[in-house]
Amino acid sequence: MTVSTTEPELVTRTDNDGSVTLTMNNPKRRNALSGAMMTALKDAFDKIAKETTVRCVILAAEGPVFCAGHDLKEMNGITECDQHASLFTQCSDLMMTIVSLPQPVIARVRGMATAAGCQLVASCDLAVAANSAKFATPGVNIGLFCSTPMVALSRNIARKHAMRMLLTGDPINAETAFSMGLVSDVVGDEELEEHTNALAARIAARSGMTVRLGKQAFYKQLEMPLSQAYSYASDVMTANMQKHDAREGIGAFIEKRHPSWRHE
């Protein structure tokens, strides 16, 4: 296993056999999404997007808080409208980077994930939460409705669940987040790292080509009318069938052997 650093003071990177863990590393500021933190994360994801040897990404955090959302001190220190617009655009770009990343991203959540931190979890493809994790969109409590977190939240959970979180600001626990569909797994705090690593390893063991193609298709078809989605998905499967790994995987299944992926 090799360990390298993207932005030592903010984001660290650990590589492990086809998967990468990016860790937000500013616990003193509760891993808030300052401009610098968002830049560090986006730079790390942009680099990973070009690395075909990486087949899964874990997004984690140091300290007792996963992510407290935007850095309110930084936001309050900005007076110009265009500066606020630039900060929110930067946040939206980061979330879109995660969604459009070729590799699946798993959020590994311990502690609180609030506002844009909850948005960060919702933007990941999967999320594993410790029992102690909590989630909230509390902007309404300080006069700033969580409008951009609402975009990711409303695409993960039912409307009335989303509106309850947005209108009250009340936190929900990990089990409630699971029942709503905000997270995919809930485990004991002591099992969080092992469980998430095992999940990433299972994904990384699949054909990288198939996973990349499937993730892209999943998000594209979601925005289409039903008949268009089926037409598009049929085209994707047709293209998929022409790939080496599809032929290898089907052949291996028929021959009752393990496939030998080329990730192409």
Automatic annotation (TrEMBL):
Keyword annotations for this protein, in alphabetical order, are: Fatty acid metabolism, Lipid metabolism, Lyase, Transit peptide
| A molecular-function term among this protein's GO annotations | enoyl-CoA hydratase activity
Q: Where is this region: Disordered?
A: 1-24
Annotated InterPro entries: ClpP/crotonase-like_dom_sf, Enoyl-CoA_hydra/iso, Enoyl-CoA_hydra_C, Mitochondrial_ECH-domain
> What family does this chain come from, according to its entry?
Belongs to the enoyl-CoA hydratase/isomerase family.
- PANTHER family from the xrefs? ENOYL-COA HYDRATASE DOMAIN-CONTAINING PROTEIN 3, MITOCHONDRIAL (PTHR43602:SF1), PTHR43602
Q: What does this protein do?
A: May play a role in fatty acid biosynthesis and insulin sensitivity.
Task: Give the protein's recorded name.
Answer: Enoyl-CoA hydratase domain-containing protein 3, mitochondrial
